[in-house]
Amino acid sequence: MIRIVLAEDQAMLRGALAALLGMERDIEVVGVAGDGEEAWRELQRATPDLLVTDIEMPGLTGLELAQRIQRHGLATKVVIVTTFARAGYLRRALDAGVLGYLLKDAPVEQLAGALRTVHGGGRAIDPQLALEAWSDADPLNERERQVLRLAGEGRSSGDIAVALNLSQGTVRNYLSEAIGKLGVGNRIEAARLARQKGWL
Questions:
Q1: Which residue from 143, 135, 136, 137 is spatially nearest to 177, judged by alpha carbons?
Q2: What is the C-alpha separation between 200 and 146, in angstroms, rounded?
Q3: For the HTH luxR-type domain, which residue ranges apply (predicted)?
Q4: Residue-range domains of the chain with CATH
Q5: Could you tell me which residues come within 8 angstroms of residue 75 by beta carbon, excluding any fewer than 6 positions away?
Q6: Are the C-beta atoms of residues 135 and 87 closer than 8 Å to each other?
Q7: Chain segment 144-197, per-residue pLDDT in tens
Q8: What is the pTM of this model?
Q9: Deepest of 37, 53, 130, 163, by most Cβ within 10 A of its Cβ?
Q10: For residues 62 and 39, what is the distance between their CA atoms, to the nearest angstrom?
């Protein structure tokens, strides 16, 4: 059996996916979670073969979960199922060791097939996204991304400095670098463009 934990913040979709995957003869849903932190607890409790996760979730994002799994050296493999057809997200997912990346409009048979492929040691990536992922490189480093994400939420430089344990001057430098790299006029435009590209 392929044992999976399913992380999805939309309750109806989470329930539907769990039910549909549970009907597959070789797949067992051993845990479900509505946010990233709950998913992390489920991973530690159930030690599944696969984590099937959305990207945008409260607490930890799917990408942050994948990074944490990678950092802790867990054997659980990650498959992302998302509405976000953004090449930037795919590139970051691959960097975090994600082996599957599918869009939510894919039929459940395709998802089940992808889970079997990843469980067997392969990759399952949406082919159109895979092509696009290499045409639009992400210019931001991880610290610039963190600062810009908080700035996009409307946080002040002082708030960001406290949240990330940095000086305000360092925060301003990171914001200035990000704005320059993205070729926009201010932090809000930079955050909007980076989010649109899937870099945040």
A1: 143
A2: 8
A3: 133-198
A4: 2-133 (3.40.50.2300), 142-197 (1.10.10.10)
A5: 47, 49
A6: yes
A7: 999 999 998 889 999 999 999 999 999 999 999 999 888 888 998 899 888 887
A8: 0.69
A9: 53
A10: 9
Main-chain phi, psi angles of 47, to 5 degrees: 40, 65
Asked whether 129 and 105 are in contact (CB, 8 A), the reply is no
User: Residue 179: which residues within 8 A CB-CB, separation 6 or more?
Assistant: 185, 186, 187, 189, 190
Contact status, residue 8 vs residue 61, Cβ threshold 8 Å = no
* 12 phi/psi in degrees, rounded to 5: -65, -45
136 pLDDT above the threshold of 70: no
What is the C-alpha separation between 183 and 189, in angstroms, rounded?
9
Count of CB atoms situated within 10 Å of the CB of 135? 7
